[in-house]
Amino acid sequence: MDSQQRSLCFISLAFLFITCSSAEFLIQQVTQGRGTENNSSYSLDANLGVTRVLRDERPSSKIVTIAGYSVIKGRGEPYESSVFEAAGYKWRIVLYVVGNANDGGAGYISLYVRIEETESLPFGWELNNVDLKLFVHNPKLNKYLTVTDGALKRFNGVKKESGFGQLIALSTFENTNEGYIVQDTCSFGAEILIVKPAEINSTILLIFSLETDTAAAWYPIRSGYGVGVNNIILLADLNDASKGYLVNDAIIFEAEMVKVSVTNIVSV
């Protein structure tokens, strides 16, 4: 690698590092910089992969309001909502007020959604890529505690329910200072979306630069593409058939980009 190539490599890596660091810093500022006491729209708490966020927007699929929480709790049985439609399918919200012991829910509120009327679906049906968020309304803050784990859900004839055994601790939910229960009334919600994969695949021709250190770099034919990575994969790994990168002399590259924008408001 000559000096010019080394300089370009160094500049690219430095720019990439600065960009990633800046994006991470800005994201932290947005999600963690302020709490609800400062009138922020969001506060964040992550536990074992489950994320809990307070947000202003109502759940888009279903809200269930229970007037008589103490009565429902005294029965000790799961509460099921009426059937509702979301993402082209029929569902119910299933609430365990005293927690679903079979899902580690002792001492918690457990909340699920269950797909319904599946007899009308084709034999061997399966519903994939379901983005599920569950909610608890907090009237005191006028916000919705949004609970998700970021994983896309799968429903089929064997698995018709999905949700969280530990949605919110009962000690928190029933604490009057927290504001989830007002006059023995509380509300829960669900947001169900189906994530559709991209239907169009783009094929591009790449030029590979083969170096003496077994590292491969790739560049698009046209110039002016901004920043990239010079050393993306070892040639030894690329040419190793057991690793499965090359299939029929073709390889697929994917990129994920996060756009972070900042708006500066200047008073006149």
UniProtKB/TrEMBL annotation:
CDD domains: MATH. InterPro entries: MATH/TRAF_dom, TRAF-like. The keyword Repressor does not apply. Residues 59-192 form the MATH domain. Keywords: Signal. Residues 1-23 form the signal peptide. PROSITE patterns: MATH. Pfam families: MATH_2. Coiled coil: none annotated. This is MATH domain-containing protein. It comes from Brassica napus.
